[in-house]
Structures are given as C-alpha cells and as structure tokens.
Amino acid sequence: MMKIKYLLIALFAIHCSLFTPMSAQDKKLFTLEDLNFGGTNYANLRPQDMWLTWWGEKLIETGVDECKVIDTKTGKKQVLFTLDDINKMAGSDDDKYVRHLMNATFPYPDKTIVAVGNRKAFILVDFEKKQIVWQDSISGQTANDWNPTSRATAWVEKDQLYVADANGVKHQLSTDGSREIVYGQSVHRNEFGIRKGTFWSPKGNRLAFYRMDQSMVTDYPQVNIFTRSADYEPDKYPMAGMTSHKVTVGVYDVKTNKTIYLQAGDPTDRYFTNIAWSPDEKTIYMFELNRKQNDCRLVSYDATTGAKIAELYRETSDKYVEPQNPIQFLPWDSEKFVMQSQKDGYNHLYLMDKSGKQLKQITSGKWVVMDLVGFNTKKKSILYTSNEIYPTNCNLWTVEVNSGKRNLLGQGIGVVQSAQPSATGQQVALKFSSYNRPRVIDLINANTWKVTNLLEAADPWKDYQQPIYTSGYITAADGKTDLYYRMVKPHDFDPNKKYPTVIYVYGGPHAHNVDASWHYMSRPWETYMAQKGYIVFIMDNRGSENRGRDFEQATFHQLGQVEMQDQMKGVEFLKKQPYVDMNRLGVHGWSFGGFMTISLMLNYPDVFKVAVAGGPVIDWKWYEVMYGERYMGTPQDNPEGYAKASLISKAKNLKGKLQIITGYNDNTVVPQHCLSFLDACVKAGTQPDFFAYPGEEHNMRGHASVHLHERITQYFEDYLK
User: Fold this and answer.
1) Is the distance from CB of 404 to CB of 436 less than 8 angstroms?
2) Rounded CA gap, 345 and 360, in Å?
3) How many CB atoms lie within 10 A of CB 135?
4) 538: which strand partners?
5) CA–CA dist 509, 494 (Å, integer)
6) DSSP character for 51?
7) Segment holding 316, helix H or strand E
8) Residue 494 burial (C-beta neighbours within 10 Å; 0-12, 13-18, 19+)
9) CA 294/CA 434 separation, integer angstroms
C-alpha cells in the first residue's frame, strides 16, 4: 500500500502542471548574471543549502565560520568550535591559516579531531585539547590522496608519483614520469567510472596506482595563443580505430618501500577499471575489458606479489558491458561482497562470495539502482538510491541482505541530490528536491525510518517573474516506450497566441535532462528564454540514462539515428499544440547535444529554422577510443554506421541559420570536428556561422559562460523571433 501511495504522488507530480499566476508588475526580470553559474548574482539565487558531514554518529554542519553539532532527535544546533578557535590552535603560521570550515572533516569517530587545510598545508586539530596533533606539508600538489588510518599521503609532483608516510618521510615511486608516462592519475580518459589514479588499501599500508604509457598515442596539436608567437601544447588523444595507450597497475608497500605490478598480462587494447581492496589488504580486485568492451571480467590479484589469483566473474554482450562501480565488501562479513551489474537489463545489486559464486540477486525489477550509498551495520542492510517509484524519481531505500526486505527511507518524492550515511549507516542526511520544492534536507533514522527535517529551502526566485514549468510523457518512435519531457512557457503564457519554440537536446548516454527535481530539472537558460517570449521543449530520447540497458543500447552502432526518430516524435507532439509556431522552430544543444542539433538541422532542413550547436561531434572517427568504440565500434568494423552518423556529407543540406560554437582548446571534442564541417560547408556552398572561445576547453568556464549564453540567446533573437 505504501508503494502505491508514493506512486500516485509521483504520477500526480509528473503529470500536473505547475501553473504560476501572472506576476505583479513589480516582480523582477532575470538577467544571465542571475541565472548563469558564471554570473555575478548567481550564488544569491541558488536554493539555501547546508554543508554537512558526520563525526561518527554525530551530524556536523560545516559553515564558513563555525562547525555546529546537530541534535539528531530535535534538529537543534550547538557550536562545536569556530574558525577563530582553529586558527588560534594553529598559531600564527600563515601556511596553517584556515580560511573557512566548509571542507572540514572528522576522520576518527571516537576522537575529537578535525581535519582542515588550505593550499599549503593539511592539519589535524584536536579541538578539545586545542592543539595541532599532525600536519602534512605537501598539500597543493596534483592528485593528493590521504589515508586517515596510516596518515600516509600519495601525490604527483612534476609528473612523478610520491608517497609520504605519517612521519613525513618522502618516497619517490617513479622516475620516468612525463607527459607520455603518466602516474597516479585517472586513465582511459575518465571512462568506466574512473575519476582518480591512486587507491589506498583500507588501513593505508599499501597503495595501488595507475601507470599509463601513452607514448604511442597520436598528439592532437592544441595551440596556446596567449604567448607572443603562440605555443604548441599537444594533447594525447587516441581516436576511434587508432592506437590507444597501455595501462598497468602498480602496488606500493609503505612498510617495505617496495613496488610491484599486477601480472595482468599484455595491456595492449585492454581496460583496467574499478580497483578495489579486500578488507585484509592482501587482495586487489579490478574489472578488465577487451577493447571491443563486450567481454568484462572481475579478476583478483595478490597484493604482495602481483600474481593473478582468479577470474571471479565474467559478463559478455553482443553490444557492450560497462562496469561503473567497484565491488564493495560487507562490513560485517569479509568473505562476501556486493557487485553491481545490469546483466538482467537493469542495474542491480548482487551478493557474491570471494570465490566469485553468486549467492543471490539482492535487488531486481524494471528499475535502476543509481547508487550504493552505504551499509547499515546494525541492520546488516544496504542503503541505495533507485528510480523504482517512478522513472524520473530518485529515492533512498534500504534492503536487508539476508531477507531481501526493502523499505523506502524519507518522503519518497522528487530526486535525491545527496545521501550521507553516518559511520554505522544507522542515520542518513538526505538532500532532495521535487518539482516545486527547491531543496529539502532531512535527517533519517535508518532503523526506525523516523524523519527529522533540517531545512525546507524557500524559493530563491520568489521576487522574480517565473515561467511555467510542466512535464509529461510521449511515446517513442518504437510505438511503446515512454519518453519524458519538460516544457517551459513564458510567465504570462496565453494559449491563444503562437510562440517561437526552441528544442533543447542532449540525447546521449550517461545523461538525462528531465526528472522530478525542482522545475523538472530545468536549466536556467530555459528560464531566460521563456522570459524573452519563447517556449522551450526538452525530452529524453532512447539512448539516455536511467532507463535500463536496452533503452540505452537502442542506439548501438548508429548514434544519432534512433535519437532523431524520438526527437521527431517530440516535434509531432509540438505540432499538435496550437500555441507552438511551427514556422519558428529552433534547436540547441552542446557536445552530444551539438551533434544532435546539427543532425536534426541537416536531416530535417524544412522543420528547423534556426540552430545553435556547441562543441559538436561531427564525425565519430575523430572522437576518443573508449567512448566512441563502445557505442560505434571502429570505423574499420562499422563503416556504414560511421558514414550514416557523419555530418560531413550532409553539409549541403543546410537551409536555415546555424551557429556553431566551440572552445578553441577543446580537448574532448577537438576543434577538428568544427573546422572540418566548416570546410565541407565551403565546398557545398552553405553558410553556417561560427564562434570560438580562445583558451576555453569543452565547456566555458567562469564569466565566459555568461557571454556564451547571451550569444546563444541573441542568435535566436536575431533569426527565430
């Protein structure tokens, strides 16, 4: 009954329109300085928030000037210490001077110690004894990784990997580090869930690290124009079908000062990812994939010798397998671990033993486990988030490992923004938002399910004229799959008028544009456009995330094709709305969305009048190996798919107004894409517009983002309105 109740709530939220009455004349108008993350007033128009961390079972609010203990029963706060207190304890040394407490952590549940720092130093302060108990003098280096148990630190300095033990004794692990031999940093271009390159064992006695040899990878000729004669600053960029880098995994023993390498065999055309440690620090686990990414194996290695122990699990596919998460051992049973896989069609949790035997499938259903948040050691249960309630939701659940009994934690509406469990997982600080609630922070008892509200953020836009945000779903081009959309209308929307309309599109994997969070996840730029009299329409087509394996893999080996079919179903929906002016239909997207924007513009030249494409992929043969080959194979193996997706041959189809924007130093979608398309347009006699941001990479940073969105807006103002 509870599940049905929350399902009805979610259905009501997703289908109902949030109609905002016409604003009074004294309501403010938004500017991009208000709405854009690079804007001067952006911070003041974000929903109220709290910075939280756990000290064992005590919840701490880490503010700029104070750390406060929050009573987990009442929500009341009491000052634990202040910034002035910490700096008095640190003394007058500027290296140790702490400028705020927002990043303070409490690494020891049973000790009155706080970890704080700045760019020059990292210190542990006993705030009860009022003294520094430990300090690390190497802060500020690349890829700092500190283990609280051993107090050893790993870092990269001038391309070499170092470790300092608790006494500050410095050990150099590499001597051949360079731009071509990379140590201790993320590899495989951050694919497969990789975000870093060093991995401490639980007690910090051993360090696993990546070594990437990319000397054989072709250089992409990036140029720094800000010097007198411009400097050549090449970037190692392995393109689909070309030679890729080789990765190995080293293991450093802090006590013996020795390094060994895992005996994983020839690393050529292989990917090593999701490194994990056994609780006893004796074994390392990692997922290994072939270059086609259709054969995934979980393998264990002896951490002392590097010898391969066993292949514990294997998963194959006629498309691809994509491990995103390392295994996690049960805190109460070091013989068993939890593995995530979408082998049954949806990402779920599986209980395995150390031999690789599957003991049970812990979760199942036509919904996605989004994150394994932690473990409740008292209940012997797992905390996780999923979209079981509704596809556009993300809610917190608990499942008991032995019985499989599951319970929903919290209010069961909207989208979880973060879930922070206490040391034992018996309490969770939960941040979420729903379509009409900017941010809610609740403290949840994971044993009793009691909810204590800590914050209900007010609408930070209450003094402004706000658009009308609605959401719903339509049927995909396959005639059976639901696709969820968002529509943003002017605040004074009149159904008897016709409005210029812009479709915002992304459409690629590992992303979605519509969910049940505040304003249905609307981007601030959409609000700006609605204020200027546009309707903005956004829909998640097949190929996007959180809908299961088959939904995402529908685009395999033919990127852009199924996605366009679904987006054109969105166009059909818009045609049926009497207030949409189909003679003034535009489209805009960035990255994969830039690829989709130009694809739609060239494949349906009589439908779209104006388009702005940012950082667009033009031909997948110029994109990186890992991502490109996962979805498209190689140009050698899939020439038909690459030809169909390429926009070069379609440059002649351009009829409407198209502006292409790129970062001049984009190292994700390299400038070769845009420049090659411009060349094709010259040859075809078509006339796109083009703008480049010098020094910027794939996304515009800082205040350049305000300039970018004003430029995008102005293009539609000039040619669509």
Assistant:
1) no
2) 16
3) 17
4) 486, 504
5) 36
6) -
7) strand 308-316
8) exposed
9) 37
User: Can you list the residues of the chain whose pLDDT is less than 50?
Assistant: 1-23
The two three-digit tokens of residue 447, written as one number: 């044993």
d(CA 214, CA 650): 34
Amino acid found at 35:
L
Torsion of CA 552, 556, 561, 565, to 10 degrees: -30
Q: What is the pLDDT of residues 65-79, one digit of tens each?
A: 999 999 998 899 999
DSSP alpha helix (H) spans, 225-331: none
H helices of 474-560, in order, are 524-531, 549-553
Q: How far are the Cα atoms of 239, 506, 627 from residue 619, in angstroms, in the given order?
A: 11, 17, 13
Compute the distance between CA of residue 630 and CA of residue 510 in angstroms, rounded to an integer. 13
**Whats the size of the chain, residue-wise?**
721
C-alpha 379/C-alpha 332 separation (Å) is 10
Structure tokens at 667: 């190292």
> pLDDT at position 22, please?
41
* Tokens 């949806």, located at residue: 346
Beta strand spans in 412-558 (E): 415-421, 427-434, 437-445, 451-456, 468-475, 482-489, 499-504, 535-539
The Cα–Cα gap between 630 and 610 comes to: 32
What one-character-per-residue DSSP string does 406-437 give? EEEES---SEEEEEEE-TTSSEEEEEEEETTE
Residues labelled as active-site residues: 591, 666, 698
CA–CA distance, 585 with 599 (Å, rounded to integer): 15
Residue among 442, 439, 493 at smallest CA distance from 465: 493
Note the pLDDT tens digit of each residue in 636-650: 999 999 999 999 999
Q: 528: buried, middle or exposed (CB in 10 Å: 19+, 13-18, 0-12)? A: buried
List phi, psi (to 5°) of 477: -65, -15
What does the block give as tokens for 677? 């398309």
The single-letter code of the amino acid at 475 is T
Task: Note the pLDDT of residue 120.
Answer: 79
Confidence at residue 142, expressed as pLDDT on a 0 to 100 scale: 66
Are the C-beta atoms of 32 and 710 separated by less than 8 Å? yes
Q: Which two tokens stand for residue 265?
A: 């065999």
For residue 249 the two structure tokens come to: 């995994």
